[in-house]
Structure to design on (590 residues):
């Protein structure tokens, strides 16, 4: 109950910034919509399918990717690196009896829910306009597994960004690292093209990185293009990444706070 | 002892870069580091309910010591104990009994009224409902902020925000309170209100308070004991009154003259530090102050005369100057 109350208090704070949050969502919306227009042109031109993808599945994929980008793209790293570490606000968290990771999760989760809700609204508008061409899984067993994959994707995204943010304890210029992983996330998360359309070697690389478990597999799971037989492997991969990232986070947090100089505060 | 510090040292490595592009390129291959001894072999004890002023110029090591005591920093050497805990371990039981207030740094949510932050802290510190209500109403009454509880934080003045910061920091009734420049940036009226509050809070709650400030008035009003620190070392630890006796080698004669007297004549009595007729200020040796006062009254047309202790700020400046030599 205590955690629910803390979450609800943070949600109030996030809700006070709903207009700004909506603008961020609109910015993130542009990229998938442009790619959707590109694929629409390609499929209408050729009238064929590509490695099992057609206009309907591709449209659903990119619309779901908008929701995934909004709900699963954790941005807590910027706050941790610039505000907490470089400006020294970490001090105010260190002197309070509450887990730093949990604090940040409660700060981030309301943003993800709010942005995810904007994404769902966009999806529903497209569904109303284009009807059954925009499709997702509707059978409850598969949907339940897809939701589990989405939740694990969110946790992987969260710990990955926590580690990225804490790297500012060692680096003076965090922005280079941030940009590098932003681009890596776009390519290997499936934002440019669906990962199974990549060449074999690049595809294997993408499937071995955490980004595919954050965006691509949750999207294909809820869309229904992910084979049921593949789901156990995906879940295993997600649990592996979550455990590895959590262990790394714990290690660098313990080492990092010994380096923290509480500068500026 | 509530706070016990033994041979505490905190050293930092700072990166030194030569100027210009060549310096930047060089630093890619060979970086030069310098060790800064922010705190160097500091020891002191503070008992329950004491309010101690921690004084020193910028970079003296005051805030670093406070950060080591509150668990923000790991000491390089030495031992620190607060309420029987080792601060840097940051155990929950320890964190629930301390608070650190840093002037102009805030923990309040800007877009919500301050009471939402108080509620958050209630949950964080697991304060029972009844205790929370009582502490909140006591603090609200002491700081006179009843009307501000529902106002968005960004719409509060700096002084009002500082009051709310104090409530947020004290809502869990900490046994030990670290105040780092609590009156910085406030106008004189608000500074006085803050000092009055800290004084009353210390008296009512028997909290142990360690206060750093650049404003001597804060220290003068609040702290009976002061610790003076410079270049990471303690220069003085004792009562404020004793500091005057120990370090002030002179007294100050403030004179109001009836008619003009040449400055060189006044300088025969002692060191003439100010002369703006009819007012003159003369420094004389502590032992000779009575004799000098009598001489002034006999030789010159004096309308008024006061023998005063030197200003505490001047004494502390002298302490730092002597230490630098």
């Amino acid at each position: 109950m205590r955690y629910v109350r803390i979450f609800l208090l943070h949600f109030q704070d996030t809700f006070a910034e709903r207009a700004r949050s909506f603008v961020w969502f609109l910015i993130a919306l542009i990229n998938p919509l442009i790619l959707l227009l590109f694929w629409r042109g390609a499929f209408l031109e050729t009238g064929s399918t590509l490695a099992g993808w057609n206009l309907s599945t591709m449209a659903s994929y990119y619309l779901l990717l908008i929701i995934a980008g909004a709900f699963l793209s954790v941005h807590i790293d910027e706050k941790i690196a610039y505000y907490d570490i470089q400006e020294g606000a970490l001090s105010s968290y260190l002197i309070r009896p509450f887990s730093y990771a949990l604090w940040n999760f409660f700060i981030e989760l309301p943003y993800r829910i709010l942005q995810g809700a904007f994404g769902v609204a966009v999806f529903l508008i497209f569904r109303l306009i284009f009807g059954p061409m925009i499709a997702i899984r509707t059978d409850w067993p598969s949907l339940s597994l897809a939701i589990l994959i989405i939740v694990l994707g969110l946790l992987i995204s969260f710990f990955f960004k926590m580690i990225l943010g804490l790297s500012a304890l060692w680096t003076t210029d965090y922005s280079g690292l941030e940009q590098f992983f932003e681009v890596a996330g776009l390519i290997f998360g499936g934002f440019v093209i669906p990962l199974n359309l990549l060449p074999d070697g690049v595809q294997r690389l993408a499937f071995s990185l955490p980004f595919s478990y954050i965006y691509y597999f949750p999207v294909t799971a809820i869309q229904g293009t992910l084979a049921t037989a593949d789901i156990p492997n995906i879940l295993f991969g997600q649990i592996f990444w979550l455990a590895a990232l959590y262990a790394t986070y714990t290690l660098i947090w313990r080492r990092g706070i010994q380096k923290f100089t509480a500068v500026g505060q | 002892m509530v706070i016990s510090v033994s041979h505490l040292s905190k050293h930092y490595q700072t990166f030194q870069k030569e100027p210009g592009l060549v310096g930047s390129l060089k630093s890619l291959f060979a970086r030069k580091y310098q060790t800064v001894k922010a705190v160097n072999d500091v020891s002191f004890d503070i008992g329950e309910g004491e309010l101690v002023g921690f004084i020193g110029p910028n970079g003296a090591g005051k805030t670093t010591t406070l950060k080591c005591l509150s668990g923000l920093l790991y000491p390089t050497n030495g031992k620190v104990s607060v309420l029987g805990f080792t601060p840097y371990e940051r155990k929950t039981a320890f964190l629930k009994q301390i608070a650190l207030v840093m002037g102009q740094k805030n923990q309040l949510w800007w877009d919500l009224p301050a009471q939402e932050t108080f509620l958050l802290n209630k949950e964080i510190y697991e304060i029972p409902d009844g205790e929370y209500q009582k502490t909140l109403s006591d603090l609200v009454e002491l700081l006179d902020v009843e009307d501000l509880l529902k106002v968005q934080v960004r719409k509060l003045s700096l002084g009002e925000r500082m009051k709310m910061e104090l409530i947020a920091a004290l809502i869990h009734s900490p046994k030990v309170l670290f105040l780092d420049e609590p009156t910085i940036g406030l106008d004189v009226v608000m500074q006085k209100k803050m000092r009055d509050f800290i004084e009353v809070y210390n008296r009512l709650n028997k909290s142990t308070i360690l206060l750093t400030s650049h404003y001597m008035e804060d220290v003068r009003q609040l702290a009976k004991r002061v610790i003076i620190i410079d270049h990471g070392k303690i220069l003085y630890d004792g009562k404020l009154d004793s500091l005057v006796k120990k370090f002030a080698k002179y007294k100050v004669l403030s004179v109001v003259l009836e008619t003009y007297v040449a400055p060189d004549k006044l300088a025969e009595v002692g060191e003439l530090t100010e002369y703006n007729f009819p007012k003159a200020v003369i420094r004389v040796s502590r032992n000779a102050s009575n004799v000098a006062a009598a001489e002034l009254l006999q030789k010159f047309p004096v309308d008024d005369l006061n023998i005063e202790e030197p200003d505490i700020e001047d004494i502390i400046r002298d302490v730092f100057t002597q230490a630098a030599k």
